[in-house]
Amino acid sequence: MNAPLPVNHQVNDATNLPPGSSAGKFFEVRFESIGGLGAHAAGHVLATAAVLNMGMNGAHFSSYGSEKKGSVVRSFVRLGAASQPIRASAPVETPDVIIVFHGVLLRNPATCGGLHSDGTFIYNAPAGVIPEELKALPRTARVIRVDALGIALKEKSRPNAVMLGTICGAFPWLDAQIVLATLSEEFAGKNPAAVATNEAAFLRGASEFEIIEDVGEAEGDLPIARTDPEFGFQTQPAGGLLPEPGNSAWNDMSASRTGLMPVLDGAKCIHCGVCDLVCPDFCLVWGAGAETSKFERELMGVDYRYCKGCMRCVESCPTGALAEEIEMPGLADRLRVPLFPELIK
C-alpha cells in the first residue's frame, strides 16, 4: 500500500524537491543496520538516484567499524534542492526517516534517537507482535513494518533492495522507477544475475509494507542519542584502560544472523560431534546422556546468543538433525539452550 504523506511532508510539485528544502531544511535519512544486509549500498543508490536523475542536491556516507558480517553499520543520506548547498558532513542525528534492517537493533535506544515527531520509522519484521521497544517512538510518528528479510529470502535478493522499495512507496515524491534503475545499474556490472532478483524484491518492498497505528507513546521529537560519549580534554578517560573489557561469556552474535538459524531435532541426532568440529563459535551445548542412553555425551541444543547463523553445522550434519529454518521473532529465545546458565538472571 502507498501511504499518504503527512501535511508537512508534501512534495513541491513544481520542482519535485524533497519536503522543506525550499525553507533550507534537508530531508535526512538514517539507515540502521549490520554488516551484510546492504545498508551502505542502499544509501549510495538512493543518493545517486536523487542527485544524478532527480535534480536534487545530496550527500551520502556511512559509519561502521570492522567491515564484517554482524558489525554495526549506519548509513546517512541528506537531500535538498539543487540550489541548496550541503556543507554538513556530520552523521544524521535528527532524521526525517529511520530505516532499521535488523530487529535486534531495536534493543539499542540510539537506534531511534533523534526522530522527528512527524518522522517515519521503517523497520524489518514479519507480521505479528509489535516489539515493546517501539513504544519509545513519538506518538505522532508514522511507523511502517515490512518483512524485508522474508521477501529477500524468497526472491533470492538482499534486504536493501526491499527497503529501497519501501521508502519509495512511503514517499511517492521519490521516483521509484529512477531509484530502481539506479539499483539495477549498481549491480549490472558486479553481479548481472542479481538485477532481476533485486527488481522483484524492490517492487514487493514498495507495495507489501504495513502502517502500524498507535505504536509510539513519546511526546515531541526524540532526543539525540549518541552511541559514543563526547570526551573533552577534561573528561576523557585515562589512557591504557579498558573500562569495558572483552568477555566471551557476554559476547552476543545474534545480530549476525540474517534471517536463518539452525534448529536441532533431537530424535534424529546420533551425537557424532561432527557439527561441533566445524562450529566456529562453540555455540553447541553438550550434556551428560540419560541413564538409559547409549551415549555418554549428548547434544542438548544451541545457544543462539553465540550463533551467527553460518550454517556449517547444518551442512555437516549426516542425519539432518540440524536443519535450517527461517528465524521468526522469539524463536531463538524459545529454543535457546544456554551455555552459561549461571549468567542468566
Notes on the structure:
This protein is of the alpha/beta class and 345 residues long. It folds into two domains: 7-212, Pyruvate-ferredoxin oxidoreductase, PFOR, domain III (Pyruvate-ferredoxin Oxidoreductase, domain 3); 254-343, Alpha-Beta Plaits, CATH 3.30.70.20. Helix content is 23%, strand content 19%. The chain has eight helices and eleven strands. It has helices at residues 39-53, 148-155, 159-170, 176-188, 193-207, 274-278, 312-316, 331-335; strands at residues 27-34, 56-64, 72-81, 97-100, 120-124, 142-146, 210-212, 260-264, 284-288, 297-302, 322-326. It has a seven-stranded mixed sheet, with helices on one face. Helix 1 packs across helix 3 and helix 2 (148-155) packs antiparallel against helix 5 (193-207). The longest helix is centred in the N-terminal third of the chain and has 15 residues, at 39-53. The chain is globular and about 80 Å long. The protein starts with 26 loop residues before the first strand and ends in a 10-residue tail after the last helix.
